[in-house]
Amino acid sequence: MPLTLTARKDTASLPVYLTSGDALEETGASAAACVWARANGFQGAEGAMLTIPGDDGALGGAFFGVGNATFGLGRLARALPKGAWHFAAPPKDPNLASLALKLGSYAFTRYGKKPTPEISFAAPEGADLAAVERQAEGTFLARDLINTPANDMGPEALEEAARRLAEKHGVEIRVTAGEALLSENLPMIHAVGRAGAQAPRLIDMRWGAESAPKVTLVGKGVCFDTGGLDIKPANGMLLMKKDMGGAANVLGLASMIMAAKLPVRLRVLIPAVENAIAGNAFRPGDILTSRKGITVEVGNTDAEGRLVLADALALADEEAPELVIDMATLTGAARVALGPDLPPFYTHNEALAARLSEAAEMVVDPLWRMPLWQPYKDKLRSKVADTNNVTSDGFAGSITAALFLERFVEKASAWAHFDIYGWNPSEKPAAPVGGEAQGIRAIERVLTERYGA
């Protein structure tokens, strides 16, 4: 089970001595403990840990090399022996330290993997435990959903996950599925998902006072992406269970917002589909008419995420919300440009961009602003429709995808698009390999500053 944070120190709790180098005596540890550490070659390197024997030979504590990375404390959740622990001296940032411990304790155990050690840890003085718990809960929700394979996380299961969250927080939820998507004017969601074994659907959640500022989250819910008739190679499908990472992230973010009881009118829109191959699959060269009336030539069926997002964004935009945020595992081009750990985001709103960048640094949730470079719009031209869904030259793929989506948002006061990866390809101090929430803690920070009490 994940590490338990406690408000008070247990009487049997053992100390963790934090060091940024080999100045072990400055940590407050006993002289005998420092001698022990040096005899065992411990030099306080970042991420290094050494347990210390007590006077009776039993476990007496631990040294940990924290360096300059407070979030590195997440390693403790997987490295410490089970039991009760506390910091011998307060870390620099009590909230980040507590959150790092909590996030580092995550393990996806549904299919048999062992959980992390059973640890209780006394939160350092000044930590906001309620905030830490809701951020961890939202992050774990996103990680769990992404890590679940497509045989257990199709459109129906994604809907059920949304319904569980809705029931917990008293959310209005409406789902439009199958042929009803056509009568409800959501044709591109229907086109992309109609070849799947489970009917495509739009999940629509609403929470909060109707008079409150409208904040709408849109998440790409492609539960598996074969590439469609423009089929991916085998190795390109290995991680495609994570192609609903945008949906997982907005559900995690929604969980945080509702747990914090932010005074907003929250709406969550998730087009949940499988981009499958069958006789009724949409084809390269098809021309789709979107909800907004914009016609789209399908240049590639493997660029399906932007199609389902376009209909959902158009729907979101119709009520002119104060803020629209969409999140999607949209392009490989974003990974080429910035790698898996640094998601790009796009917005025309300078104030919003500045706050997102500041918040990302403050809460150690990396983001990088990229430009909505208008001259690249010409790359999306079609000779037979209003636009193509892809370019022909392969350049600036993340930017042109954002420019495609931009056409479907006109009335919202502000819009931001996040092209996330949703996956950790290697272990991090506060996260194992696997599904990841990216950007949602930074967004929550911005929303809390803007709308919080």
From TrEMBL:
<dbReference type="InterPro" id="IPR048816">
    <property type="entry name" value="Peptidase_M17_N_1"/>
</dbReference>
<feature type="domain" description="Cytosol aminopeptidase">
    <location>
        <begin position="300"/>
        <end position="307"/>
    </location>
</feature>
<dbReference type="InterPro" id="IPR043472">
    <property type="entry name" value="Macro_dom-like"/>
</dbReference>
<dbReference type="InterPro" id="IPR000819">
    <property type="entry name" value="Peptidase_M17_C"/>
</dbReference>
<comment type="similarity">
    <text>Belongs to the peptidase M17 family.</text>
</comment>
<protein>
    <submittedName>
        <fullName>Leucyl aminopeptidase family protein</fullName>
    </submittedName>
</protein>
<keyword id="KW-0645">Protease</keyword>
<keyword id="KW-0031">Aminopeptidase</keyword>
<keyword id="KW-0464">Manganese</keyword>
<dbReference type="GO" id="GO:0004177">
    <property type="term" value="F:aminopeptidase activity"/>
</dbReference>
<dbReference type="InterPro" id="IPR011356">
    <property type="entry name" value="Leucine_aapep/pepB"/>
</dbReference>
<keyword id="KW-0378">Hydrolase</keyword>
<dbReference type="Pfam" id="PF00883">
    <property type="entry name" value="Peptidase_M17"/>
</dbReference>
<dbReference type="Pfam" id="PF21337">
    <property type="entry name" value="Peptidase_M17_N_1"/>
</dbReference>
